[in-house]
Amino acid sequence: MNDQPRITFLGQSGFLLETSDFTLLIDPTNKKSGDYSGDLVYCTHEHMDHVGGVEVFMERNPQAILLGSENVTKKFSIYGDRTVTCEDGGTFEKSQWHLEFKRLRHGFFKGVINLGIVVTLGEFGFAHCGDAVSFDGFPTSPVNVLAVPIGGGFAAGPGKALNFIQQLSEPLPTIVPMHWVFRNPRGFCKKVTETVPNANCIVPTKGEPLKGFD
Ligand SMILES: [Zn+2]
Questions:
Q1: Domain 6-195: which CATH number of 3.40.630.30, 3.30.720.210, 3.20.20.70, 3.60.15.10
Q2: What's the gap in Å between 103 CA and the centre of ligand 1?
């Protein structure tokens, strides 16, 4: 598919989406995962394991913009007008990219605003849940790839994630487990393919482009 960006997993919940003329970084967990050239960094919420690479990215890319909830943009207020605050149900357009945000409940911390994101590029869609423990109404449109947390605690564990996947309607997106902490992503994908007919589940390799989906 022409519109398909290259998607590289960066560890924890970090992903880099690239086309020839635009790069979007999502949830850079540490300095290393922020150390890329790019145009936009999006953080699903303000916790350190999702924003640890923001400063490196913003310093490296003086034109780049940081997108996130008010908690994220408040945390990085030093970047002033290089930040854009997004809200539940809001959208953001840049180049050919269309971004949509959907609040999904985060575990434990009441004040946390976890905004899942649906990235659409022409015919292609990528959705990322952040640290969601509930997934109601997500993704907001059919997508090709869906990144789901399985680590438990602040985010969904394998059981909740599997339950969510079982409720998705056809055509099913390719499932990509993330934020697995001490869980086993291979075991999770095995369970997904055993439980959900037609499901494609890919364990991403850190630092490598995702393969095996369309
Ligand atoms: Zn997290």
A1: 3.60.15.10
A2: 15
